Amino acid sequence: MTASTILLLLLSLLIAGGLSFFQYLYKVKNKSNVYLFLTFLRFLSIFSILLLLINPIITTNKLEIIKTPLPIVVDNSSSISFLNAKEKATELAQKLTSNSAIQEKFEVQSYLFDTDFRQSDSLTFKGNQTNLDLVAKNLKSIYKNAFYPTVIITDGNQTSGNDYVYSFDENNKVYPLVLGDTTKVLDLKINQLNVNRYAFLKNKFPVEVFLQYSGDKNVTANFSIAQGNEVLHKESISFSPSKKTVVVNVLLPANKVGLQVCRAKIESKESEKNSFNNIKNFAVEVIDQKTTVTIVSAIDHPDIGALKRSIESNLQHKVVLLKPNEVKSLEDYNVLILYQPTTAFKSVFDANKKANLNTFIITGTATDFTFLNQQQNNFVFKMSGQEEDYLADFDSQFNLFAVDNLGFENLPPLQNNYGSIATNGEVYVLLSAKIRNIDTKAPLLSFTENQGKRAAYLFGENSWKWRLQSHTDNQSFEKYDVFINKIIQYLASNNAKKSLVVNHESFYNSGEGIEITAQYFNKNYDFDEKARLTIAVTNVKTKQTKNFDLLKGNNTYKVNLDGLVAGSYNFSVKELNSKTSYSGHFEILDFDIEKQFVNPDVQKLKQLAVQTKGKDFYPNQIDVLIKTLLDTEEYKAVQKDVVTKSPLIDWKWLLILIAVFLSTEWFVRKYNGML
Fold first, then answer.
1. Beta-strand runs (E) in 488-637
2. Same domain flag for 653 and 588
3. Is a pLDDT exceeding 60 seen at residue 496?
4. What sections of the protein cross the membrane (predicted)?
5. Are both 298 and 396 inside the same structural domain?
6. Averaged confidence pLDDT in the chain
7. pLDDT at 29
8. Alpha-carbon separation of residue 74 from 38, 109, 163, 270, 598 (angstroms)
9. Three-state SS for 4?
10. Which domain range does residue 379 map to?
11. How many domains are there within the chain?
């Protein structure tokens, strides 16, 4: 408290005392106890009011003991139950959290994890995924810059997320408590199966299967792939103590359009503790659709080669390169790309009036814009002979089809003639043009649709530099190639716009996220944020139907259908206001990833302990773990001096006391007839 505040308090005492004396005792001959009591009440009232006006700051010092946090994290996934370790996991967690010495030394916090990480409420051991990487990320977020140990009660078998060994803070020790039987038993396992989601009719699609063996003797197993009762492939595989893994590569026929569900299986005459990991279902959607794209150009340019490679990165697409004078008919093509058209393209435009193909027109410094004005009516070009560089600006509100921003703003500029480009009719702009940092308001990449005919326009050459820059940024051409193929996919479809667009997969593996997204557009084809979308999901076998609401996100509605059992499902998405609906079908393949293990992953947990300078323990070593935690002197409680400053005006009791003093004074005066 400052000297000036003390001076004001002394002055308040004098003022309160003087005013009270003057009112009740000055010139009063009979100074009875009543007067003295009233004087005291008035003094308290005035002094309290003056205290509030001065509002001194009250400083208090308090010593607090800050204990080291000890997160105890329990694996809540179903693999713990499958390994017959759920009772032991509960027992170990209880023994740690209830230990009085541990509680005295540490600030114990209990958590559990499976697909999520959360405060431990009740262990169910029903989680369908194990994500230890998520544990590391959440602990770092909760205990920022803190120094603490962590106990993780788990089998170490991770099914999702990044490698957890290097995810944890290496400065904070981790003590894994290893659950499950570590005794090695004979086990044959389909460790991984790789297959494309789509295949073309009458083609063969590759299947890559990684088989794994655990055991100490020679074993001969039969591996097969079947579709229903038909065996598509069968072979004998030999394993030994020195030959633990085998990779099988198979080409299977795609003879029927639609979703083809197959089953891979490995079996032997030996008895196995776990047979769940001997079978893996997979599915391939066979498509009878191949898009042939022709690129017509009168000049040679790197853009053409880059376009061809991007388009053909999708096996459904084939590119044919032609000169304008080589085009006799367009009946064999699905999409027409016109690169820098000039008057030499007159016959190509005439041929397309009969074929009515969707077109992708790319302009540049060699383009004849006067000719282009005559051949299309979506844009009006007023161009000079001067060349200009145009940067791209991405429009996040573009909704003709889903597309990600590849960092277009940072890509090299495209080159085109300088001038004005005016739109004529409805144009959907994905990329607009900038000259240096000046927004020209002109389109750079845009799309049109008139009477069911679609067109795309790219106003600039040297897009090959975009593909190269994308590879530099992402160490892969994939993102850029996907972007180009989305344009081709849009142009290859002649479907009219739909007000309700639903996106979903044809099949899912049980245990993985099942998300269905939808977009609803009004009559102007603007995204309707007030739409009310519901979905009804029916199990084909049981006929049981479940209804859900789709929740609005960023320009999309979505629903999460996690928890559905394996089987075949029909569904219907409906917009309640307009009664617009969409019907579809998907299958959930029977595959429980949490039942693929026969032993805990001891090696990984040991690596984690070594990486963080901790130590791994087993359930029968719980007392040793407790002793280790208690004996480690680096985890000491810290004494902290907490200084609290609070203004007197925050004291509500002082206001109540003032009211009591004034009320008491009034009642005493009333009782003694002094009012």
1. 500-503, 507-509, 515-520, 533-539, 545-549, 551-552, 557-560, 567-575, 581-589
2. no
3. no
4. 6-26, 33-54
5. yes
6. 88
7. 64
8. 68, 11, 18, 34, 19
9. helix
10. 291-492
11. 5
